[in-house]
């Protein structure tokens, strides 16, 4: 009985995810986490944070919020995508090349996917 409930919930989640730019949101959340955690990955404790440390935390949190917003506020995906690209470019300049370039590129790809996504035509 529990397995049948799991299958039904998985199908409902799949239908929900297909109705929005879910992959774009996941990429934005992953890029935000990568940019946010990059300053503390070696030290495990930030002792002296400069502009890069604070900017990394703030821009990472902002990109995570944009990733969640693109999944839940589908009508505003174009504005969110533009804001995410601007945050990714700011992260490139302010935080260790945007999380060693991986975080900024992932955010730009996720924002491009969110901007290009269109809802399915029913029928």
Number of domains: 1
Q: Please describe the biggest sheet, giving its number of strands, its sense, and whether it closes into a barrel.
A: none
Write down the overall mean pLDDT.
85
- The coarse overall form would be globular
Distance between the termini: 34 Å
User: How many β-strands, per DSSP?
Assistant: 0
Low-confidence stretches: none
- In what range is the share of β-strand residues? under 5%
Radius of gyration: 17 Å
Class by SSE composition: mainly alpha
Q: Helical percent range?
A: over 70%
* Order of secondary-structure elements: HHHHHH
Q: Compute the number of helices.
A: 6
InterPro entries: DUF6114 (IPR046096)
Pfam family, one: DUF6114
Protein name: DUF6114 domain-containing protein
Keywords: Membrane, Transmembrane, Transmembrane helix
Task: Describe the structure concisely for a colleague.
The chain crosses the membrane at residues 21-41, 53-72, 79-95. InterPro entries: DUF6114. With 123 residues, the protein is an all-alpha fold.
